[in-house]
Design goal:
Length: 265
């Protein structure tokens, strides 16, 4: 199976495609990786080199994807960190063309916008592009809880609030939503949950909260979810398996004392 993955790439570390491509390839998937940014490392280091790519370059790369017939051959299209409003609009246009050319294509949108401790960390205007263009096109979205709050426009601290937000978004597009990094009012102490939602049903997968916070866990989770979906697991089984796999990697990372995820054991 072929996956088209559109997100950032780094020289050092594991975020964006640098977190997502290897796990998908290791599972036997073919990955066409399109960068939206080329950076030396993620921004949490003291220095950062490289840049978000120009929209004209991203558009040109995506046109090449079309010219090679990859849209018709692909089973899944993934988008993650887009870097600029201009890139997001280029990608939205590409997704629309891709869905027309291949109606069976599953579009998995990871709406990378922010998180609890950093707030919104993307360019002004990107949240609106996700709300108005990309999320309505998606088959599945994989926001963290903070990002789902941005999309829904309301705090999400209970299962009922999550259910209401998912129901409202599902009317506009995505059939399935998987929410990572959830700590709800009834979440047990020192635990964190991932909540998979589909057709009014919710499935909660919890793990221990480890005392580490490497970057790229959401990108890795989405990639592992795609692996399970390509193996024809339903969204609940796919989410639970991906949660367990990410936790195993984080445990390995903690034992190694590494600042970057130890994706390869």
């Amino acid at each position: 199976m072929l996956v088209i993955s559109i997100q950032s790439q780094v020289v050092h570390g594991h975020v964006g495609n640098s977190a997502a491509v290897y796990p998908m390839q290791a599972a036997g998937l073919t990955v066409a990786a399109v960068p939206t940014a080329l950076l030396s490392n993620h921004p949490h280091y003291p220095t950062l080199r490289g840049r978000v790519l120009e929209a004209e370059l991203v558009a040109d790369l995506l046109r090449g994807v079309e010219e090679r017939g990859l849209i018709e051959a692909a089973s899944v299209l993934v988008t993650g960190y887009l870097g600029s409003v201009e890139n997001a609009l280029v990608v939205a246009d590409f997704v629309e063309r891709a869905k027309r050319a291949n109606p069976q294509l599953i579009y998995v949108c990871d709406p990378v916008m922010g998180d609890d401790d950093l707030g919104v960390f993307v360019a002004e205007g990107l949240v609106d592009v996700f709300r108005q263009r990309l999320v309505p096109l998606a088959s599945i979205i994989t926001p963290n809880r903070y990002e789902l709050e941005l999309l829904a426009g309301t705090p999400l601290r209970t299962e009922d609030a999550i259910r209401d937000a998912v129901r409202a978004l599902a009317v506009r597009g995505p059939r399935d939503i998987v929410v990572t990094g959830c700590v709800l009012d009834d979440t047990p102490p020192n635990r964190v949950e991932t909540i998979a939602c589909s057709r009014g049903r919710l499935h909660r997968s919890g793990t221990a909260r480890l005392p580490i916070r490497p970057c790229g866990t959401g990108d890795l989770f989405t990639a592992l979810l795609v692996v399970e979906l390509c193996a024809e697991r339903d969204i609940f089984a796919a989410s639970a398996t991906a949660v367990d796999a990410v936790f195993d990697i984080l445990e390995r990372t903690q034992k190694a004392g590494s600042a970057e995820m130890k994706i390869i054991g």
